[in-house]
Amino acid sequence: MQKYIKIHPDDKVAVALCHLDAGLKVFDCGTEITLSEDIPQGHKFALQDIDKEESVVKYGNAVGIAISLIRAGEWVHTHNMRTSLGDTLRYTYDKKDAAVNSDKTKFFQGYRRKDGRVGVRNEIWIVPTVGCVNSVAAEVERRSCSMRKGGVEAICAFAHPYGCSQMGEDQEYTRQILADLINHPNAGGVLVLGLGCENSNIDELKKYIGSYDEKRVKFLNAQTVEDEIETALSLIRELIDHIAGMKREPIPLSELIIGLKCGGSDGLSGITANPSVGVCSDLLIGQGGTAILTEVPEMFGAETILMNRCENEELFEKTVSMINDFKHYFESHDQVIYENPSPGNKDGGISSLEDKSMGCIQKSGSAPVRGVLTYGEPVKTTGLNLLSAPGNDLVASTALAASGAHIVLFTTGRGTPFASPVPTIKISSNSGLFHKKKGWIDFDCGVMTEGEKLSDVGSKLFDYVVSVASGEKVKSEISGFRDMAIFKQGVTL
């Protein structure tokens, strides 16, 4: 079993793939190094002396600055290194060749909707326009689940606290995200449940929804009927009758869209799980499909790699704006731009935001960037897209679904039970998590520490994604977990 890894030939540190005891002798380019202290799994140790103020190099890039002399064999972490990042930067486009192998031959079993779009689930979604009717939506979900029949795979309500008492961008965000979910093709039928007096009322929301199939989307204002629950259940029955007979059919993988997200990362995330997702993403894009990468604050420190993979200068400028706009967002709230990583990240071996970001972008594989999306904007271009959204797990995963992702691939080194509005595949970076949390984790990339090749693990993950797209349930779906969250920036009235 390999005990440690030097990710890139230029690296000054290696990463422990398992717990390493002080006194262990390791080797780098023929040089013997003795570990001077215990190194926890996922954490870094120095392969050479690193002077104070010298760059700590991992992934072939600087991931921080030594704050004191670090001797070869010493543990490298937050006690002896810091971020090297500053404030808003100016960028220069230096286009790098980026490509994936093309092979448009595979299919999944999905649902072809009336408007030509494709879903990977045939569900009924209950979407409240305002938080005031969340309890009504939850009760309608509870009582309607026993009514399911035929090809109706689930009936789900998506609670949220917004839709009223909002101003400016926040109100726009709420309306756009709700409209995106109402239009999402994983929902064969949708009940839009309003109160009647809210800012984002049904009539207002229809302007964002656009044209819709009246058999697929039903609307109910609770204030206009005597018994809103019985009326809602009657509408749910109509939706059930409408979609119960729908069947899966072969769909080219060129029409599949996946979202890429990580959360609760550890020091192995950028070595096992995230690169495996990158291989899976490249395989899908090679089939003509689409992948969406988000969580902009966790691109800081690695953003130039993505910028230089942009297909043209216009996309480069959009990426620059996406990055700098998020930095301005932090500054406008008098917050530190680089207040990251989290305590859990640090426990797992991540020492700086650059360290975290370099691992994060491994999910994007090697494909060129072909689209840059604003928050709530539906994806229009196949291939790799970047989406503006924060790092928060629920907000970012909801944003991926709203932009059109059929499935979210979520890598983690710490574990989480949450789910998004679409099937959310939990991918562990270490096998200990996979075995401990079998009710949470769907796929284990920790096997790479035991010798399995990245290409093989990524290929197996790709096959699993195709199975999920074809109907296989993920753990959170089996548990009945569904979550959504909308980005909030400003004032609540």
What does this structure look like?
With 493 residues, the protein is an alpha/beta fold. The chain folds into 3 domains: 79 residues, Archaeosine Trna-guanine Transglycosylase, Chain: A, domain 4 (Roll), CATH 2.30.130; 123 residues, 3-Layer(aba) Sandwich (Ribose 5-phosphate Isomerase B, Chain: A), CATH 3.40.1400.10; 229 residues. It is 28% helix and 20% strand. The protein has 13 helices and 23 strands. Strands 19-20-18-17-21-22-23 form a 7-stranded parallel β-sheet, with helices on both faces. The protein has a 4-stranded antiparallel β-sheet with strand order 1-2-5-8, with no helix packed on it. It has a 4-stranded parallel β-sheet with strand order 13-12-14-15, with helices on both faces. Helix 11 links the parallel strand 22 and strand 23. The chain is globular and about 80 Å long. The relative contact order is 0.14. The model has no long low-confidence stretch (mean pLDDT 95).
